[in-house]
Structure formats: structure tokens, C-alpha cells
Design a protein that fits this description.
Structural class of chain B: mainly beta
Oligomer: heterodimer
Strand content of chain B: over 45%
Largest sheet of chain B: 6 strands, mixed
Shape of chain B: globular
Radius of gyration of chain B: 13 Å
Strand content of chain A: over 45%
Number of helices of chain B: 0
Largest interface: A-B, 24 and 22 residues
Number of helices of chain A: 0
Order of helices and strands of chain A: EEEEEEEEEEE
Distance between the termini of chain B: 37 Å
Radius of gyration of chain A: 13 Å
Chain lengths: 116, 111
């Protein structure tokens, strides 16, 4: 099946620093990738849709200047949390779907961010 | 009102039991429906898609009632390995992609 990787799997940083998370589709090309955030005991919340070669589409309430998304190739999307604060501590998960397949999305293993 | 609502549980059941989870969704235009499984501190994994006619995959049966905007998942002969959080997921748009997740129902299967 299709495999999506994320790096790093976990990161601890100081408040005010920026953190970059990479999402890669390993064995397929993904024109669209999705970024989610999950706080403890809550559901995954879609943050933004990352489109290869164009600007990301952000969900309501998600600050585009704080969560920078770059989708430079068909296999890589990056999410940069700028000037991270403790309230940004969360589980960040990306997903990608196969072109033309409206059903399944393949999720990366997630990145656990802790901001001190 | 949340777009996708689930009973958070936990459902504590013995091995071999049959357990059912329910989910309701608010957007009547939703077209695609899924059940995902999420283990603690892991990413969600697709368990099964849900079709109007209902579908079965081994011990798992999913049903969709569009009129009531209601989705169900039935697990028969529960195994210890079924312990997880089960996420009801709805695609917002007609052709998939933007997924809305329920908060999940916790299942604990005990020996």
C-alpha cells in the first residue's frame, strides 16, 4: 500500500523558535496533501490543504502566517510552525491520497511537538 | 453542533463480545463515509469505507443511513487486539479528500 512518512517523529523546542515538519509520499505522487492537528483526547482537525505548485488552502481559524506550508514537489510537503508557543504543542499528522481515488487517504505516522 | 458526533465511551467488553458504535453527521451533502482506527499516540488507519448498501469485512460490519445521517460499526467476536479508538470520518465534499473526524469512541476488550 501507499506509504507516507513524516520527519521528525517528535520534537521538543523552546518557545519562540520555528519548527519544520516534513511529509513525504514514499511510493506514489501526491498532488494534494493534508495537514491535521490533534490535541489530547480530541479529534483530528484539518488545518490546511497543501497543493503542489500553488498556495495552501487554510481552514477557518488557522493562521497562515504562523503555519507555513510549502508543497514544492509531488512527494514532499512541509509545515513550519513559526514562533512556536506552548499552546502549539500537539500531534501534527499529514495525509495524502492517490490521484483519482476519492476514498482512501494515507496518513503519516505523525509528529509530536512539545513547546517548552 | 459538531459536524461528526460520536459517543466517546469507553466501551469495556469481554473477548468474544459483539459491540456497536454509532455516529451522526450534520452535513447532509456529505458523500463519503469511513471508519478509521487509531491506536494510542499513532496515526489513524482506515478500517473500512461505508456504503449506502452496508458492507462487511470479516468481523466488521458498517451501515449508513442517509435519511437519518447516521453511521454504525458492528464488531463481532471482539479480540484483545481490537482495543483502540474508532473514528467516524465524513468527507465534506462530493469527491472526497477533505475529511472531518469525529472525536472517536474508545473500545477496550478485556480477557
Amino acid at each position: 500500500g501507499a506509504v507516507v512518512s513524516q520527519h521528525p517523529s517528535w520534537v521538543i523546542c523552546k518557545s519562540g523558535t520555528s519548527v519544520k515538519i516534513e511529509c513525504r509520499s514514499l511510493d506514489f505522487q501526491a498532488t494534494t496533501m493534508f495537514w491535521y492537528r490533534q490535541f489530547p483526547k480530541q479529534s483530528l482537525m484539518l488545518m490546511a490543504t497543501s497543493n503542489e505548485g500553488s498556495k495552501a488552502t487554510y481552514e477557518q481559524g488557522v493562521e497562515k502566517d504562523k503555519f507555513l506550508i510549502n508543497h514544492a514537489s509531488l512527494t514532499l510537503s512541509t509545515l513550519t510552525v513559526t514562533s512556536a508557543h506552548p499552546e502549539d504543542s500537539s500531534f501534527y499528522i499529514c495525509s495524502a491520497g492517490l490521484a483519482g481515488d476519492r476514498d482512501e487517504q494515507f496518513f503519516g505516522p505523525g509528529t509530536r511537538l512539545t513547546v517548552l | 453542533r459538531k459536524e461528526v458526533e460520536q459517543d466517546p465511551g469507553p466501551f469495556n467488553v469481554p473477548e468474544g463480545a459483539t459491540v456497536a458504535f454509532n455516529c451522526t453527521y450534520s452535513n447532509s451533502a456529505s458523500q463519503s463515509f469511513f471508519w478509521y482506527r487509531q491506536d494510542c499516540r499513532k496515526e489513524p488507519k482506515l478500517l473500512m469505507s461505508v456504503y449506502s448498501s452496508g458492507n462487511e469485512d470479516g468481523r466488521f460490519t458498517a451501515q449508513l443511513n442517509r435519511a437519518s445521517q447516521y453511521i454504525s460499526l458492528l464488531i463481532r467476536d471482539s479480540k484483545l487486539s481490537d482495543s483502540a479508538t474508532y473514528l467516524c470520518v465524513v468527507a465534506r465534499e462530493a469527491y472526497g479528500n477533505k475529511l472531518v473526524f469525529g472525536a472517536g469512541t474508545i473500545l477496550r476488550v478485556k480477557s
